[in-house]
Amino acid sequence: MYSFTEENYLKTIYHLSQQKHLENVTTNAIADLLQTKAASVTDMLKKLADKKLILYVKYQGVNLTEKGFKVAIGTVRKHRLWEVFLFDKLKFGWEEVHEVAEQLEHIQSDYLIDKLDTFLNYPSVDPHGDPIPGKDGTIKSQTLTLLIDCKKNAQVVISGVKEHSVAFLQRLNEMELCLGKKLKIHEINEFDRCMIVMIDKEAKILVSNEVAKNILVSEA
Amino acid sequence: MYSFTEENYLKTIYHLSQQKHLENVTTNAIADLLQTKAASVTDMLKKLADKKLILYVKYQGVNLTEKGFKVAIGTVRKHRLWEVFLFDKLKFGWEEVHEVAEQLEHIQSDYLIDKLDTFLNYPSVDPHGDPIPGKDGTIKSQTLTLLIDCKKNAQVVISGVKEHSVAFLQRLNEMELCLGKKLKIHEINEFDRCMIVMIDKEAKILVSNEVAKNILVSEA
DNA sequence: AACTATTTTTAGGCTTGTCTAAAAATAGTC
DNA sequence: GACTATTTTTAGACAAGCCTAAAAATAGTT
Q: Which of A153, B43, B75, B217 could hold B156 in an S-S bridge, CB 3.0 to 4.6 Å?
């Protein structure tokens, strides 16, 4: 099995390679995300390369191997299943689930994860709308649109968020925006692209373009 | 907060001091339970003493301080709540819960444990009948009797086990004995003290004295 | 009280994962 | 193409936890 730290590195490399398709993941990018120093990252990259979990060329960044990808995707699966548990069952707020799931994702027991998946009734997305990889490592990713890119009078459902910070999610809580809310775009301001949006055919609220840039929607 | 390892040492010292009342806990006893070497234990005892978690006198064994006791009892509380979760919600067998709970007990989040306690509806015992310490560290321990010490015709309820090994618990599974089962002692053999016991007023089964020595019961 | 067996501690070393400071490689600019 | 800024790697060190082997303390026996 792989250590807490190894799983975290692999998961981070996975997330970064998702963001910047094709390109190699850089040492500094990993250090930033893991809140550690570049020198520490280099050390770990050598060890992960020795274990054939990544392809590492000095000064050229890294990519996951098939083997490393499986570990990373497994960690993401565990993380997101635990998030669903915390949100659905323990009634955590969606801004609270990430931190605790960062710990829970490293519990080592495939049996546990199978049982948890069953208990949660095989969820397909986590509380932020991110897809949960299957046991076999496949991900069903829906193509979502940014709210900011929607046209006037469009009717949509909130299906995800691009930004995962606690501050942003709390901002959405204050506006009573959460996954599954149905929106109709009533007006779009020409100057700053802020929107006036109707929630559940009732309240009209103002959504700043900064907020709208980070909300993912699908057609209603 | 305290590390995974520190919590394990404190929990072990707690369990040992429960067993052998009054007396100091010895280095070797800790090493045995934690499956490590005496030299490693001595190292850690010094560190725990520096942090005022234990009272340690060279060659004389250790005792928990108030501070160390709180950490230990907190870890036991977390362990047993997770066991209830695994058993009640995820449908683990009672012989399967311990191993995974050994990992889950080290997740750091008081908020999580509060929420879990609520979700489980404030259980007072774990799947083996052991009491779950309260948030304040108090334990309501019931005084239970060993099945072997019961008299003929006694009517009792299985309320705990003295032995926690997987092998023993599986043995009980085979005999369909579990927590809450009502027993009536039909006969006690004079020679080897094995018992013929009626389960739920139906099946009569033979319980060896080795098994009866490790089952805790309360009056029906 | 002395001798032996057992327990516990010390000493020195190893691994994992981290750090700082300095060196080397790469990228960007004139 | 040379010079500078940035990124990355190397070198050496440190803390946590563990180990083995040897020394010291304690306990048990006669």
A: B217
